[in-house]
Design goal:
The chain is mainly beta. It contains 1 helix and 14 strands. The strands form 3 sheets. Strands 1-2-10-7-6-5 form a 6-stranded antiparallel beta sheet, covered by helices on one side. Strands 3, 4, 8 and 9 form a 4-stranded antiparallel beta sheet that branches. A hairpin with an 8-residue loop joins strand 5 and strand 6 (62-66). The longest helix is centred in the last third of the chain and has 7 residues, at 143-149. The termini are far apart.
C-alpha cells in the first residue's frame, strides 16, 4: 500500500493462513517525512471485551476474546459456525519500545467492539515490522495453555512461530512451526 498515514509512506502486509486456522500477519511500515512523529501499528477488532494476558495495558504480550458478540441482539448472531464456543487468541512480536493495548470502540459500524493494538512512534525512513499471530480455539481451552504453547522469535527479519495445541477444532494434537520473513518467503512444518 502507498500513502498510508502520509502520502510519502509505504506499507506492506503479508498474511499466511494455515489449514488449522492460525493466521500470521507480518506488517512492515516505512514512514516518510510527513509521518515522522506520528504513532502507528496494527489494530484488530474483536466483538467482546478481551482478556489482557501476562501484564496489564502497554506491556501485555497477548489478548484473548470471545467471538460471541454481547449482547447478541445487537448483531445478527446465528451461531451458524459455532461462534459461541470459539475464542480468538492474539499476540504480537513488536518493535522494541512498542505499546500494546485494548481500546473500547463505541458504535463502531453500528455495534460496540474492542480494538486490540500494538503501536510505536514513527521516524522518517526507519522501517518498523510487527508480527501478529491469531489462533482460534475452543472456549474450554485455557488461554494460558494457548499462550504457553506458543513461542515466537525474530532474528534478522525471519520470524519463527512454534506451537502445539489440541482442541475439538484441530481434531488431534499437532506441533506446528511457521517461518515467515520480510521478503515474502514462508514455510509451515507439521508433526503429529
Amino acid at each position: 500500500y502507498r500513502e498510508i498515514w502520509s502520502h510519502d509512506s509505504k506499507y506492506k502486509r503479508q498474511m499466511l493462513l494455515t489449514e488449522e486456522g492460525v493466521l500470521v500477519v507480518l506488517d512492515e511500515f516505512k514512514p516518510g517525512k510527513k509521518a515522522h512523529g506520528l504513532v502507528g501499528g496494527p489494530v484488530w477488532h474483536v466483538p467482546s471485551p478481551p482478556i489482557c494476558g501476562d501484564a496489564d495495558g502497554s506491556t501485555a504480550r497477548w489478548f484473548d476474546a470471545s467471538l460471541h458478540h454481547y449482547p447478541s441482539i445487537t448483531r445478527a448472531f446465528t451461531n451458524k459456525y459455532g461462534e459461541a464456543d470459539k475464542r480468538l487468541f492474539i499476540t504480537f512480536v513488536s518493535p522494541l519500545g512498542s505499546e500494546n493495548g485494548i481500546q473500547y470502540q463505541p458504535k463502531h459500524w453500528k455495534n460496540d467492539d474492542y480494538a486490540i493494538f500494538s503501536k510505536h512512534s514513527l521516524h522518517e525512513n526507519k522501517p518498523l515490522r510487527w508480527l501478529t499471530v491469531m489462533i482460534p480455539h475452543d472456549k474450554n481451552i485455557s488461554v494460558r495453555k494457548v499462550a504457553q504453547s506458543l513461542k515466537s522469535t525474530e532474528k534478522d527479519g525471519v520470524y519463527n512461530i512454534k506451537m502445539c495445541i489440541s482442541d475439538k477444532y484441530w481434531k488431534k494434537s499437532k506441533n506446528i512451526e511457521i517461518l515467515i520473513d520480510n521478503l515474502g518467503n514462508w514455510n509451515v512444518k507439521r508433526k503429529p
